[in-house]
Design a protein that fits this description.
Strand content: 35-45%
Helix content: under 10%
Order of helices and strands: EEEEEEEEEHEE
Largest sheet: 7 strands, mixed
Oligomer: single chain
Structural class: mainly beta
Number of helices: 1
Radius of gyration: 13 Å
């Protein structure tokens, strides 16, 4: 039973853009704060961006602020990550997560631990930025 499924990853050149999607099934995202994390080979998982239930509050890591935009469409039960001006260091597997109890976006994005600590998490989509 899949709860969150990411899509939209791929291979792009530096400077190009990608838009990731994360669709929820079997539950409503509308009561969950959600976020995107990524993990590069040999590196620890890091937060990319998180968004509040209402969509009014967002959090971005220092490395993605100004280039990435997180959004949500509760009617479509989907969250998005628009990634512009991609860099090779953005390469990694991107995961979306949802949590009902951690609603402060900065907390959601900065809390440590495995993805399994969140209520729901996806299987990830690969993003590769290379010339």
């Amino acid at each position: 039973q899949v709860h969150l499924m990411e899509s939209g990853g791929g291979l792009v050149q530096p400077g190009e853009s990608l838009k990731l999607s994360c669709a929820a099934s079997a539950f409503s995202l509308s009561i969950y704060a959600v976020g995107w994390f990524r993990q590069a080979p040999g590196k620890e998982r890091e937060a990319v961006s998180c968004i509040s239930i209402s969509g009014d509050t967002t959090y971005y890591s220092d490395s993605t602020e100004g280039r990435f935009t997180i959004s949500r469409d509760n009617a479509k039960n989907t969250i998005f990550l628009q990634m512009n001006s991609l860099k090779p260091e953005d390469t990694g597997v991107y995961y979306c997560v949802a949590d009902h109890w951690i609603q402060a976006v900065q907390t959601l994005c900065t809390i440590s631990g495995p993805l399994e600590r969140f209520d729901y998490w996806g299987q990830g989509t690969q993003v590769t930025v290379s010339s």
